[in-house]
Amino acid sequence: MTKPLRIALAGLGTVGGGVVKLLDANAALITRRAGRPIEIVAVSARDRTRDRGVDLSRFEWVDDALTLSARDDIDVVVELIGGADGPALTLARTTLAASKAFVTANKAMIAHHGVELAGAAEASGTALKYEAAVAGGIPVIKGLREGAAANVIGHVYGILNGTCNYILTTMEKEGRDFNEVLGEAQALGYAEADPSFDIDGVDAAHKLSILATLAFGTELDFGSVAISGIRHVIAADIAEAAAMGYRVRLVGLAEESRKGLFQRVHACLVPLDHPLAHVSGSLNAVVAEGNFVGRLFFEGRGAGEGPTASAVVADLIDIARGEYGPAFAMPVASLARPGPAPAGERRGRAYLRFTVADRPGVLAEITAAMRDAGVSIESMIQRGATADGSVLLALVTHVCPERAVGDALNRLEGSQSIVGKPMLMHILDI
Amino acid sequence: MTKPLRIALAGLGTVGGGVVKLLDANAALITRRAGRPIEIVAVSARDRTRDRGVDLSRFEWVDDALTLSARDDIDVVVELIGGADGPALTLARTTLAASKAFVTANKAMIAHHGVELAGAAEASGTALKYEAAVAGGIPVIKGLREGAAANVIGHVYGILNGTCNYILTTMEKEGRDFNEVLGEAQALGYAEADPSFDIDGVDAAHKLSILATLAFGTELDFGSVAISGIRHVIAADIAEAAAMGYRVRLVGLAEESRKGLFQRVHACLVPLDHPLAHVSGSLNAVVAEGNFVGRLFFEGRGAGEGPTASAVVADLIDIARGEYGPAFAMPVASLARPGPAPAGERRGRAYLRFTVADRPGVLAEITAAMRDAGVSIESMIQRGATADGSVLLALVTHVCPERAVGDALNRLEGSQSIVGKPMLMHILDI
């Protein structure tokens, strides 16, 4: 099998440029590992004139990426356009329908349309690969699909968004507030001009829903991921969490039980002795807990030109080796549809932070609401009044049903003692 | 493809029993993931009467494992006998020669005979798989062979022996000495009655040589691994290292450069901000640094019934899916033979600990030897005299060629001021 694997790149942004650079730089080694050369035949992007820092004149330029699907001289279409729908999805459908292998880094499209596309790949006997869609260069799709395949997975969770982790760990190191650090991250190019996709947890939720499908053998169910982000984390939350032995991380967590599939993206408190507490800066990490293997921990760079290109080309090497496999670790007909777990039944500890007026009876009011909701308090910190006269109260509950914490907060709704919205973060007790 | 994958187990120790339990417990899920059932047809071991905690009466018992190779009703032979040579090797050769897939957890055999066996698998068009041979349940063979396959790897290194890591981290937590902790580990079953294979670094070296082959595309070269273990680490080394910001870990490290292949297993000092510093107890961890992906970190359980069985069955699922691939990530004819890198040319910092007589001039003698060898000192700790009148002197050098540190120690050989053998540990500055 020394015929080259002939590929076309659709989309030439950061990742597309990275793939070209990688295939140039590591060509000889890749040929040895793949058993044959991987050759770019054609490229396509919106703007032909943009300088991408690589010589593209060697490749045929195609204005309409859709024409790539039908060409006999192309074995694999690599989609790096992005977007859950639109041209990326049309390209995926036409490519797989034409029995051509399809590689993508597009987490939104896989989260929304992955089952349909995997079914199309199966029907055509071709490959759908998307290692780059989750956690960038970390081979975690492969780790779950193949490495941990012998296990019933209890939980899969991780730090799936480098922008949020950069912001949270910078807030932690420098004691600064969210908006300030976000602004700086935007200036440095670590955060997008419109950062909401990252900081509100949507990007992490796309990735989580993909991991859950691989871990549990369930259909993709992005719609039932409970999503919140990191906008409401203040410097004091991070400081109080540290005082109690925790770090704050945006964690995507999925669990499966007889009650259904639980999926949540949420800023949460991670105990210092948990490996996720040591994941710093823009790194990503994924943990899977299997019934035989125990805890597996994967860490690395979750985004950027090099790591993402590494994952895309790993998929291409798999295809060159003839290792197609089922996209979601099993035929789509075998995927279960457990439905979402009922909200609030999950049990755990929670962190609550209130900003309260500095006057008698406030503590009694809050602790009474907790008691009436059946929530007992494990530890509490109250700091003296700040410049504006308000007082910060942070507490950690004992283990209780999550709905009980929600009930306690409902009982406090409208309280004249509490300034602004209380902050709730769950504690990662896994 | 709904025909079952029919396997035979040769060897029914801890891991063999684990494979039976895993295939029982997770049968339905494995059938979905593998696309077909994985069925044990026959088993073989030395002692038929031993109670292994699983019902083996369902399977055909075979006294002579070698007969498994020739049987038409078996697709895969799983070798869990152990030993670099002897019955395990004969079974591997006859099985692969019979074009039957072969799965093993045998690191010694792969380290010594892996290239021969991979060649035999290639010639027969069958699979040789050995995920369980390195780092137990952590899918690091797959991670390097496939996940990081697009990268030129600069270094691969890790904590590859759980017994040593358990001993070192227990010494660290409890401030106790090596022999005491080893004795306790033996009593608890965490260390073998004859522990030398583990604590002298041979087991880690087997695994390292396999990782190096996958990372660099070089032939296995176990013979050129520089090996030392943890016998000479004393509680004071761990305490002084901690005082200077390090933890002591047994690390296997391989690097490739134009000078050749460098492979070493050595107790070394790991800076606290390095992920290996946080690998505790009997866990294993592997780091690979790729030119595009950056640093990849994998952590998990490196031994034991469950994790090892998880890796063996992952290999079986790959085979059931028809994903054979080249055993060492490329055809054996493509593996390079760089030869070992010349000793001593590597540059780095080192930790040295001397036990010295408490009298004038000792410090001058040691520092003069360091100066004459061209080694400058970054930091030094001297503790007051102990009960027997000796004084402990620990220092960390600046970056210098490793041979210079050796030269300094040679100059001090025979010194009347130094009691016993000085301790040398390199610092992991990657």
From TrEMBL, chains A, B:
- What are the recorded Gene Ontology BP terms? methionine biosynthetic process; threonine biosynthetic process
Which GO molecular function entries does the Swiss-Prot or TrEMBL record give?
homoserine dehydrogenase activity; NADP binding
Q: Which residues form the ACT domain?
A: 351-423
Cross-referenced CDD domains, in alphabetical order? ACT_HSDH-Hom
Q: Which InterPro entries match?
A: ACT-like_dom_sf, ACT_dom, Asp/hSer_DH_NAD-bd, HDH, HDH_cat, HDH_CS, NAD(P)-bd_dom_sf
Provide the binding site for L-homoserine.
Answer: 192
**Residues that bind NADPH, according to the entry?**
107
According to its UniProt record, which residues of this chain constitute the active site? 207 (proton donor)
Record: residues binding NADP(+): 10-17
Pathway membership, UniProt: Amino-acid biosynthesis; L-threonine biosynthesis; L-threonine from L-aspartate: step 3/5; Amino-acid biosynthesis; L-methionine biosynthesis via de novo pathway; L-homoserine from L-aspartate: step 3/3
Q: Which Pfam families match?
A: ACT, Homoserine_dh, NAD_binding_3
> What's in the keyword line of the UniProt record?
Amino-acid biosynthesis, Methionine biosynthesis, NADP, Oxidoreductase, Threonine biosynthesis
EC number(s) reported in the record: 1.1.1.3
Q: Which residues form a coiled coil?
A: none
Q: Which PANTHER family match?
A: HOMOSERINE DEHYDROGENASE
Q: Which family does it belong to?
A: Belongs to the homoserine dehydrogenase family.
Name of the featured protein: Homoserine dehydrogenase
Q: What species does this protein belong to? A: Alterirhizorhabdus solaris
